[in-house]
Structures are given as C-alpha cells and as structure tokens.
Write a structure and sequence with these properties.
37% of the residues lie in helices and 7% in strands. By secondary structure, the chain is mainly alpha-helical. Strand 6 (327-331) and strand 7 form a beta hairpin. The two termini are 54 Å apart.
Length: 358
C-alpha cells in the first residue's frame, strides 16, 4: 500500500451485494481476494445492510453508529448465518472414457447424499464420484479473523474507508441522528463535523502566498498560491497547474517592478518596519511550527485525522480503474456468472452475419 493516501474505490467494491453474510460470500462466490485485507470491512458492510430488516431500524442503526464511534462494534454478530452449519463446495465432474452416469427414470443423473454429507454420483461402472467437498473448516478459519471489537480508525490508515462511512452517516435519516445524540456526544467521536478551517490551518504552509516572500525574489520559489488550501482541494489537477503557472509569471513581473519603488534593502523580519516590504519570515515561522500544529489537530480530531490526509491527496493519487468484473455465484445449486450488480452474464449472439458473402 502506498504511503500517500490514495483514492482506490475499494470501499464501493467491498460493499457488494453478492451475498448477505460473510460466510456465504466465502462459501458461494469466487470473489475471495478482498478477504485477505478487507474481511472486517466486508463484515461491517454486511452488518449495516442487515439493519433494514430489524423491527426498529431507526434505533438499530443508531446503535450501530454508537458502537462504531466507540470502537467496540462486534462484527461477528452478522458474519455468519445462524442457520448455516455446513458449507459444501462444488467439484468438477470427471469421467473416464466410455463411462457414463447412472440415470433415474426421469433421465436425471442419480445423485445421493453420503454419510459424510457430500453429494455423490454413481457411474455405470459402479464407481462413486464425489460432486462436493466439505469447506466448513475453511469458512470458519476465515471467519475467525473477523474482530469482535472493531476500531475503524486503526484499521484504515489510508482514510478512504473512514471517508466512505462518514458519508454514509451524513446521509442517514435525521431520526437516526436524533436518537444517536441521546446516546453520546457526537462531537467527541469520529463522527464529528469537521470544519474546512481545520484543513486550512493544517496545510497553510503548503500554499504560500506572495506576501510570504521577499520582494526581490523574482524566481518566486516556492511558487506563490493565489488561493488557500480549501480551494486547492476542490480544483482539478490541470486547472491548478494552469493557475499556478500564471501566478508565478504575474508575481515575477510584479516583483521586478516593485524593486524600482523600494530603494532600501530592509528585511521583513518584523512587522511595520518598512513600507511595502513583506514579512517573508512569516513563511519560515509557519513551517517551523507545522509539526506542533499537526499534533494539536491530531489530538483534537482523534480517529478522523486520517480523513484529513486522504481528502488532501485523493485527487492527486487517484488509482481507481474501471474494470468489468465477472464473479461466480452459487444460485440454487447452480453456478452462475454475474457482475457486481448481480446481473447474469450472458453471451450475445448476432441473429445475422456480418459476412457480405453470406
């Protein structure tokens, strides 16, 4: 994983609706790559989706957000279907040359359940062929990795999942928020409202203004920003580059002209010393105090501090790629290929030929 917080789109993929519990996701799909790093977030998503089926969904969702904010949510609650006791995985049927399956009177393959609980088919040579194998141990092993006390701030160092779930909370029903306010002080948790002013204070030295530099610095190093960090987060990369290029040129022309006005060589090491001489030592003081400022903001925001870094860099480090996904899903004893929206993958055949000779 990159050290720079990046936008990957993984939270949307993890929030798939292929199954309604984690155990069925493991046992009945081939989409197991997300389990290695995101099994707890998958369980969190399944848990949240289950709330709509509660008798009192408003209170249930408020309890969910309370436990998430207090970092003590038990993800094992909805990781496993309580009625599931055994998980079978399908095996590929292999027959020898000249060997056929025994059929019933209706013409269907003769299949029965063995003493071990697996499906067995029998051939005309009286050979038993297992059609399934027991995958319960594999499912239970992966389910054991799901935490009973989940802390999203420590699990998501990148900040993207925090941003995704906070957006989910912002869009929740007002009644949910009213009930939640009676349970805890939201502003002391990761669900708190974060002002854009926090970002402005945190990254002020990264967007130096022209007034922070000496009037004789025609090279404008670093490049002066004509806007603050709050606006910087909202600009596209090409737009930002264009604005900064124009700013650098404008500042150079201005400083070349202002040198004809200021006849002294005074330094801006103190305020109100010389007319038109900027306090360019202010930028140096900003940078020296940045670590202390970041520490104070980190303590104030708590678990939401990772979100601040992600919001600042996700546009620059956008690693999202649109790839059509095809997943295998067991549906009523049949293995089907579906997309992420559970649409069945079908092979389209043209009713006519493109061959001009046909």
């Amino acid at each position: 994983m990159s050290a720079i917080p990046s936008k990957t789109g993984v939270p949307d993929i993890v929030n798939s609706k292929l199954t309604n519990t984690v155990d069925f996701h493991i046992a009945s799909t081939n989409f197991n790559s997300i389990l290695r790093s995101y099994i707890n977030f998958l369980a969190l998503s399944k848990y949240y989706d289950s709330l709509k089926y509660e008798a009192d969904p408003i209170t249930a969702e408020a309890t969910f957000w309370e436990q998430l904010a207090n970092s003590n949510i038990n993800l094992q609650t909805f990781a496993k279907n309580p009625k599931a006791t055994k998980y079978l995985s399908r095996l590929q049927l292999e027959l020898n040359d000249g060997e056929f399956l025994k059929l019933t009177e209706s013409g269907d393959p003769l299949v029965y359940i063995s003493a071990a609980g697996n499906l067995i088919a029998e051939t005309t040579e009286d050979r038993e062929i297992p059609l399934t194998k027991d995958g319960t141990d594999k499912v239970n092993e992966q389910l054991s990795e799901i935490k009973t006390s989940f802390d999203i701030a420590s699990e998501d160092q990148n900040g993207e999942f925090i941003a995704w779930w906070l957006d989910k909370y912002r869009k929740s029903h007002n009644k949910v928020k009213e009930v939640l306010q009676t349970k805890l002080n939201i502003e002391d948790t990761i669900l708190q409202e974060i002002s854009e002013s926090i970002g402005f204070i945190s990254y002020q030295y990264l967007t130096p203004q022209g007034r922070y530099m000496h009037y004789a610095d025609e090279d404008s190093d670093p490049t002066p920003y004509p806007f603050n960090s709050i606006i910087d987060d909202k600009l596209e990369l090409d737009t930002r580059k264009n604005i900064l290029g124009l700013s650098r040129r404008t500042e150079s022309i201005f400083k070349r002209n202002i040198q004809q006005v200021i006849k002294t060589t005074d330094l801006g090491d103190s305020a109100h010393k010389e007319n038109l001489v900027t306090d360019h030592f202010y930028y140096k003081r900003l940078k020296e105090n940045q670590s202390e400022i970041s520490e104070v903001i980190s303590v104030t925001l708590g678990g939401a501090f990772n979100l601040l870094g992600w919001l600042t860099t996700n546009k620059v480090s956008n690693k999202q790629k649109t790839v059509p996904g095809v997943f295998e899903l067991v549906v009523e004893n049949s293995k089907e290929e579906v997309d992420l929206l559970l649409n069945k993958i079908q092979t389209l055949k043209r009713p006519f030929s493109m061959d001009i000779l046909s």
